[in-house]
Write the structure tokens for this entry.
Amino acid sequence: MAHTIFTKIVQGEIPCYKIAENDDFLAFLDINPLAEGHTLVIPKLEIDYIFDIEDALYKDLFLFAKKIAPAIKAVIPCKRIGVAVIGLEVPHAHIHLVPINGIYDIDFKKPKIALTDHQFENIAKDIREHIEI
Ligand code: AMP
């Protein structure tokens, strides 16, 4: 079976700017972000549609995201961490966590921001330092 790009990240075949992980979940920066700190939270298990995830794993996925969001907010000045599930591009369930100050900040039609490798690394490092798992 061909693996999704996110499974390749889980397996270490493709690099990512890692935020946090445990046995079941991984959080990493979105490579094409709407805002600095835009993070994806995924189950390691390869499941396409988020609502196909069995209840316990689904609940734990959102609890894992709940631990990541305050760390993003501590690093990136914003009113809230917006939450979105789209899933039209990568067929591997994921939650977008996006720092927002208004509704338009989480408009996926918006032009994405460009960050250097160095900027991604620094943002990920700063967020990691605020995570308590
Ligand atoms: P969607 O499936 O519509 O929720 O969008 C998938 C998201 O995954 C997009 O925001 C992409 O920028 C992001 N993405 C795709 N490939 C990678 C990657 N290799 N590393 C980090 N983020 C990615």
